[in-house]
Write a structure and sequence with these properties.
Residues 1-22 have a biased composition (Basic residues). By secondary structure, the chain is mostly helical. It has 2 domains: 13-98, no CATH class; 109-188, no CATH class. It contains 9 helices and 2 strands; from the N terminus they run αααααββαααα. It has helices at 13-16, 19-32, 38-46, 50-60, 66-98, 126-133, 135-141, 154-158, 174-188; strands at residues 109-115, 121-125. It has a two-stranded antiparallel ribbon. Helix 3 packs across helix 4. The longest helix is centred in the middle third of the chain and has 33 residues, at 66-98.
């Protein structure tokens, strides 16, 4: 039977160490470290947070001034606040996109039904949508079907019979219109 090969990790060894391993490795790392910012360097090299870096450097006997410690803690807090602000901004942007009245629309089209092979959108323009929104103009365009006239298509069967004398105001529902338009487009594709 062939020997199984071990999975190789991409995480550096220094960042996989526990405290005991870090303290042993840090002694040789401190001798090679050229900078003065021990807290920052330790934090980046071993992948720990600021508090852990300060505590472990104190255990190792590195001389840290109170000013260095306060500065490192302040920068860590500022980083956390900055991260939270970015997260909040991202969430607000996502909520605005989701709560948009017309999710598939732009400045030309009120509803984008799809895109051509070349990437051009097609659908219902804002001008067409205004005509559909005006219920009186729709009633004038489509004459009422008398009950004696047979239905010639499935669309006519769904259209209710309206008598001439008693027209009723029906509010325009954009979601229903979009669903109907999308389903009729899918039948032909």
């Amino acid at each position: 039977m062939a020997k199984r090969s071990k999975k190789k990790t991409n995480t550096p060894r220094a960042k996989r160490m526990n405290r005991h391993g870090r303290l042993q490795s840090a002694a040789s790392w401190l001798k090679k470290y050229p900078g003065e910012r021990y807290i920052y360097g330790y934090r980046k090299h071993f992948g720990v947070d600021t508090g852990t870096a300060i505590a472990e450097l104190k255990i190792l006997g590195v001389p840290l001034s109170e000013e260095m410690i306060q500065s490192a803690r302040a920068s860590a807090e500022a980083l956390v606040k900055q991260k939270q602000a970015r997260k909040n901004k991202r969430m607000l942007r996502r909520q605005e996109e989701e709560s948009s009245e017309f999710p598939d629309s732009d400045e030309t089209y009120a509803y984008i039904a799809g895109y051509t092979n070349w990437g051009f959108p097609y659908g219902i323009t804002w001008a067409e949508m205004e005509r559909f929104a005006d219920q009186d103009s729709l009633d004038d365009l489509v004459p009422p079907r008398p009950p004696s006239q047979p239905c010639t298509s499935a669309d006519e069967r769904e259209r209710p019979y309206v008598e001439d004398g008693g027209r009723e105001e029906v509010p325009f529902d954009i979601e229903e219109f979009i669903r109907y338009y999308s389903s009729s487009r899918n039948e032909f594709m």
